[in-house]
Amino acid sequence: MRPVKALILDLDGLILDTECLCVEVAREIVARHGKQLTLEAQRVALGKRPHECWSDVAKVLGIEVSAEQLLAESEPLLAARWAHAPLLPGALRLVRHLAACRIPFAVATSTPRATFAAKMSLKDELRGLLAERPGAVVVCGDEVDRGKPHPDVFLEAARQLGVAPEGCLVLEDAPSGVEGSAALSGYRRL
PANTHER family, per this entry (predicted)? Predict the structure, then answer.
C-alpha cells in the first residue's frame, strides 16, 4: 500500500455540524407540502449538492413540486442559520494539526462556494487555516461537473493538491461521499 500524502476532508457532518440545520429546515419545507421528513429521505439526500438533495427528497416523499421550488423555499431559511453552525468536536484541532505539520489537505464539499463562504463567516480561525495557501485547498460542489456520489470533487481536490488519488486519504461521513470516494481506484477512506 502506498503512503498517504494528503488528506481530503468533507465539510458538513465532519467539520461543521450543519446537518441538524438542514434536517430542521427540510422538516419545515416538506410539512408545507403536507409531508413528513423520513429517515429514508434524509439518508438519500445526505452529502449531496442542494438541488440533488431536494430532487431525491421530493422523489422519496412523493412531493409534486420541482427541486428548484423546494430549493428556493429552503435557501432563505438556511442562509439565516449557516454562520451559526457549530464546529464538531476535534475538527478545528485536526485542521490546526494538519496546517502546523504542513500536511497537504483539502476540503471537498458538495456545498456551493457562496454557501461555503456563509458557513465560514463567523469562523475566523478555520477560515484562515483553509485560506488559499500552499498545502490547503477547498473544492466546492458548484466547481465540478457532477456532485457526490460521483468522484469529481475528490479528483479535483487531489489535482489541486498535486497528489495522485491513490496517495489521498478521504475522511467522509455521508453515504454519497463514501460512495464517491470508493469509486476511485486507490482512494482510501475513513
Answer: 2-DEOXYGLUCOSE-6-PHOSPHATE PHOSPHATASE 2, OS01G0757900 PROTEIN
Pick the CATH number of 19-83 from 1.10.3720.10, 1.10.10.60, 1.10.150.240, 3.30.420.270: 1.10.150.240
DSSP one-letter string for 73-137: HHHHHHHTTGGGPPBPTTHHHHHHHHHHTT--EEEE-SS-HHHHHHHHTT-HHHHHHHSSBTTEE
Continuous segment of H or E residues that includes residue 55: helix 50-61
Per-domain boundaries in the chain: 6-17+85-189, 19-83
**Grid cell in block for residue 55:** 430532487
Active-site positions? Answer: 10, 12
Alpha-carbon 30 to chain mean position: 22
Q: Given CATH 3.20.20.70, say whether it is the number of domain 6-17+85-189.
A: no
Angle at 121 between CA 118 and CA 126, to 5 degrees: 115
8 A C-beta contact, residue 26 and residue 42: yes
pLDDT in tens, 98-154: 999 999 999 999 899 999 999 999 999 999 988 866 678 999 999 999 988 888 999
